[in-house]
Amino acid sequence: MTLSVCMIVRDEEQTLARCLDCVRAVADEIIIVDTGSKDNTVNIALSYTKRVAHFEWCDDFSAARNYSFSLASGDLIMWLDADDVITEENVRKIAALKNRGDFDAAYLKYAAAFDGDKPTFVYYRERIFRRTMNFKWEGEVHEVVTVSGRRIYSDATIYHKKVKKNPPRRNLLIYQNKVSRGLPLDARQKFYYGRELFFNGMYVECVSVLKDFLSGDGWVENKVEACRTIYFALSKLGKEKQAVRALVYAFTISFPRAEDCCILARHFEGKNDVRTAIYWYERALASPESIENGGFVNIDYLSYIPAIRLCILHDKLGNYKVAARYNEIAGKAKPTDPSYLHNKKYFQTKLTER
């Protein structure tokens, strides 16, 4: 099986070579579509591949990605962004996927936040496609491919290592332009529009859009995330009780996510209600959540954060053995964490004194 790697780029001279150095070990064909670079991006691209094309930007990421896919000739197509990185181990895993003929779409892990080199925010993205399936990207921004056929989930991971920030309000303006033209937003677009409103400090508008999203159809994971975003937006507006109700509403949609349990726990910590806070941190540790659910998962909320907070709270209550046990759970997640190491020495002394 041959693999075409397709990328759309613009002003990516800081990261493009770093990405392509990883890619050329596994790609049979590299296709780069430039959408209007003013820096040295195109020259860098040409030093790696002759398949460099130009696309007139029209505020539509899907249109650009679909154009890049139309130029591919490989049996399989993989998309990447210029600030993505693939380690040698993951290059080998992707090379192994090339030799398989038993899938039409492969989902790979996407790591978007890190504690040092360790990923903390990971989720699955549709990444490699059989070219003859003619899958298409949808959505002007936060684009997605709706796949069919045989799907597989790989433990290969792409690292998203951003260097520069996106142009301010870029995504928001694309959505606002669509709304101003009277074009309808589907459920997924409403979800991401609400998030963009939040990121740009438009909290009232964010709440309105996301409540509208929650009243209709939509992916469960997006609905849970929407409740969390509404919580933060209402908190910014000083509406504490409404914020908590919005967060708890997520529990009527699906099982409590670890991050939401930790948010509730911190709320009760702020009210000095230690035992209720402990309850919710314990629920976070017991959460069945994983990245296989498909949603955005901050791994720290599954283990380290609730464990270290439970350590602190039980220490306040004088439950030193219990606190030390939770500290060890935190240490398994982050063995070199300064807080864990400090607590370990503290409890060795404390428990010896007793």
Overview of the molecule:
By secondary structure, the chain is of the alpha/beta class. The chain folds into two domains: 3-160, Spore Coat Polysaccharide Biosynthesis Protein SpsA, Chain A, CATH 3.90.550; 170-353, Tetratricopeptide repeat domain (Serine Threonine Protein Phosphatase 5, Tetratricopeptide repeat), CATH 1.25.40. The protein has 14 helices and eleven strands. The strands form two sheets. Strands 1, 2, 3, 4, 5, 6, 7, 10 and 11 form a nine-stranded mixed β-sheet that branches. It has a two-stranded antiparallel sheet with strand order 8-9. Helix 7 runs antiparallel to helix 8 (220-236) and helix 8 runs antiparallel to helix 9. The longest helix is centred in the middle third of the chain and has 17 residues, at 220-236. The N and C termini lie far apart (66 Å). The model has no long low-confidence stretch (mean pLDDT 96).
